[in-house]
């Protein structure tokens, strides 16, 4: 069911990364366009934004990303051909993506990191809280996460990030959060964030996954955030500063990334409110990772009414005979 929040109407989808983990498939095709069953991964992400009540979508794109724009646009030639054939089913499938949301695009230029990609959204977003959905992070449509985050932000204000428990040996692949409990089981307060920590130094096994609801104060912070880990402007660093500015973070906590302006700005960044985390226990796939991409296809195909029964039967015999 579509939920509405008068405070949040805009979703930002960064999709300008290089997708190097998926080369050579992503040499000339954006990784977000790789099909998951029969829809490109990015369509699931836009559908998720829309079902959380956010139908104004700004996509941050870059080189080779033209197919993303074409996918959410009309294709009159194809529509005409399908109409002539009387293929109403496929015609509806083709029109679905162009009727989904009001789409806007901005190019990032050099992919200087996720924080830089989000900063490119500032002129479009203005002074309202907004959602960020990473274009290569697929949340199973049966496990709504963003709608819960939007609801938590409406009640608690500030910003809300999505967290997921991972095996401690995997935490070095993620941003990691130190947290304090709140009265709600799946909601925590963020005290410290560390980008891709060594497992021995990680403050928890709570990984940041690709959904955020952010206060616009993040833009002022991002403008002053120096490149961090990997030479990229890290969104995690800027969110840590949001928490610090509200007095709930641990500015000099162990392993916290250094920010060039941390000591030089006497009054600090504008208080954008607290930063909370919603702990997600559902199904999530990183479609930029080859193994997770395969798992996403198998799982979603198994659940499909049209393809599932035959595919499951085949999979069962494949596993029994071949493995
Ligand atoms: P990733 O860390 O997955 O980087 O970015 P990537 O370049 O896309 O992929 P690999 O690691 O080389 O395979 C996380 C998200 O942030 C976006 C990406 O498109 C992805 O959705 N991003 C990253 C940008 O939009 N711009 C950037 O400069 C970096």
Commentary on this structure:
The structure is a single chain. With 323 residues, the chain is of the alpha/beta class. It is 33% helix and 21% strand. It contains eleven helices and 13 strands. A nine-stranded mixed sheet has the order 5-4-1-6-11-8-12-10-9. The protein has a two-stranded antiparallel sheet with strand order 2-3. A two-stranded antiparallel sheet has the order 7-13. It starts with 9 loop residues before the first strand and ends with a helix. Bound molecules: uridine 5'-triphosphate. The site of uridine 5'-triphosphate has 20 residues, from helix 5.
Helix content: 25-40%
Content of β-strand: 15-25%
Kindly report the average pLDDT value.
89
Low-confidence stretches: 1-5, 252-266
Q: State the order of secondary-structure elements, H for helix, E for strand.
A: EEEHEHHHEHHEEHEEEEHHEEHH
The CATH topology is: Spore Coat Polysaccharide Biosynthesis Protein SpsA, Chain A
Distance between the termini: 41 Å
> Can you tell me the CATH class?
Alpha Beta
**How many structural domains does the protein architecture include?**
1
Widest sheet, order of strands: 5-4-1-6-11-8-12-10-9
CATH A-level architecture: Alpha-Beta Complex
Radius of gyration: 20 Å
CATH homologous superfamily heading? Spore Coat Polysaccharide Biosynthesis Protein SpsA, Chain A
- Total number of helices: 11
The hetero compounds bound to this protein are:
uridine 5'-triphosphate
Number of distinct beta strands? 13
Instruction: Give the overall shape.
Output: globular
């Amino acid at each position: 069911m579509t939920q509405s929040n008068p405070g949040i109407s805009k979703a930002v989808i960064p999709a300008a990364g290089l997708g190097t983990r998926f080369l050579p498939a992503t040499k000339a095709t954006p990784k977000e366009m790789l099909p998951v069953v029969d829809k490109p991964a990015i369509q699931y992400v836009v559908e998720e934004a829309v079902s959380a009540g956010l139908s104004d979508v700004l996509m941050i794109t870059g080189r080779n990303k033209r197919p993303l724009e074409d996918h959410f646009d009309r294709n009159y030639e194809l529509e005409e051909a399908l109409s002539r054939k009387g293929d109403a089913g496929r015609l509806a499938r083709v029109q679905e993506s162009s009727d989904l949301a009001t789409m806007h695009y901005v190019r990032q230029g050099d992919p200087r990191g996720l924080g830089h990609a989000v900063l490119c959204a500032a002129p479009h977003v203005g002074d309202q809280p907004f959602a960020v959905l990473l274009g290569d992070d697929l949340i199973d449509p049966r496990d709504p996460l963003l709608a819960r985050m939007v609801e938590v932000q409406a009640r608690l204000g500030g910003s809300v990030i999505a967290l997921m428990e991972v095996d401690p040996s995997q935490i070095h692949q993620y941003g990691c959060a130190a947290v304090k409990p709140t009265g709600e089981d799946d909601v925590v307060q963020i005290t410290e964030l560390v980008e891709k920590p060594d497992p021995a130094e990680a403050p928890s096994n709570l990984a940041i996954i690709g959904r955020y609801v952010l206060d616009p104060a993040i833009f002022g912070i991002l403008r002053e955030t120096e490149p961090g880990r990997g030479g990229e402007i890290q969104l995690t660093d800027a969110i840590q500063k949001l928490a610090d500015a509200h007095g709930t973070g641990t500015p000099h906590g162990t392993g916290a990334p250094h920010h060039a302006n941390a000591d030089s700005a006497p009054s600090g960044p504008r208080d954008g409110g607290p930063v909370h985390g919603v702990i997600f226990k559902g199904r999530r796939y990183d479609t930029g990772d080859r193994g997770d991409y395969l798992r996403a296809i198998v799982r979603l195909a198994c659940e499909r009414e049209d393809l599932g029964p035959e595919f499951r039967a085949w999979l069962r015999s494949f596993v029994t005979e071949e493995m």
